[in-house]
Q: What sequence folds into this?
């Protein structure tokens, strides 16, 4: 375990900004494992999204779970199948309260804001050539994940959801094709700091 994570475990300080670890597993390993589990899909541009379960919309339980989460990992790939995973977290409002992570329009539609970032446009660039998207919502306390897979479109109307996300540049609209929980996930015991 790194000195950073050892100190965080002993003193309860944040690791990578949002987690405090209670185990001898660096947060970077959890991050890597989450990215690997959704990023490696063979040729997503040529093949439909595969799932172990029949396509299903978001259930009420899934929507409730998603609304509680502080972050997600979004996975996309370009038209050649080269994947990219990005962390997305809540943004604070002027009064300090957090904005919603996503909004669930209905059982088949999620909206994810896109804020100014590193200006590499990896996620948006990939979605322009390959609309396949996976969103991984992780709850380390409950040892539960929800993997949401679907097709995305980019909505450039920055004012459309301005009441929720005043600083968003655009929105990713996800047409949900499959949502599957995993309540037996073996995750390191991390808690929000």
A:
């Amino acid at each position: 375990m790194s000195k950073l994570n050892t100190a965080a475990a002993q003193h309860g300080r944040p690791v990578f900004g949002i987690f405090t670890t209670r185990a001898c597993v660096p947060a970077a390993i959890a991050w890597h494992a989450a990215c690997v589990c959704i990023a490696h899909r063979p040729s997503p541009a040529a093949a439909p999204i595969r799932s172990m379960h029949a396509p299903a919309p978001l259930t009420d339980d899934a929507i409730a779970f998603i609304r509680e989460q502080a972050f997600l990992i979004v996975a996309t790939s370009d038209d050649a199948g080269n994947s990219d995973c990005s962390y997305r977290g809540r943004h604070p409002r002027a009064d300090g309260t957090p904005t919603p992570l996503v909004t669930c329009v209905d059982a088949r539609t999620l909206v994810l804001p896109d804020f100014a970032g590193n200006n590499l446009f990896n996620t948006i660039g990939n979605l322009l050539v390959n609309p396949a998207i996976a969103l991984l919502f992780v709850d380390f306390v409950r040892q539960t994940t929800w993997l949401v897979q679907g097709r995305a479109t980019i909505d450039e109307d920055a004012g459309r959801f301005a009441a929720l996300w005043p600083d968003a540049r655009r929105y990713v609209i996800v047409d949900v094709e499959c949502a599957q929980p995993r309540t037996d996930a073996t995750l390191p015991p991390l808690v929000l700091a």
User: Anything to note?
Assistant: The radius of gyration is 17 Å.
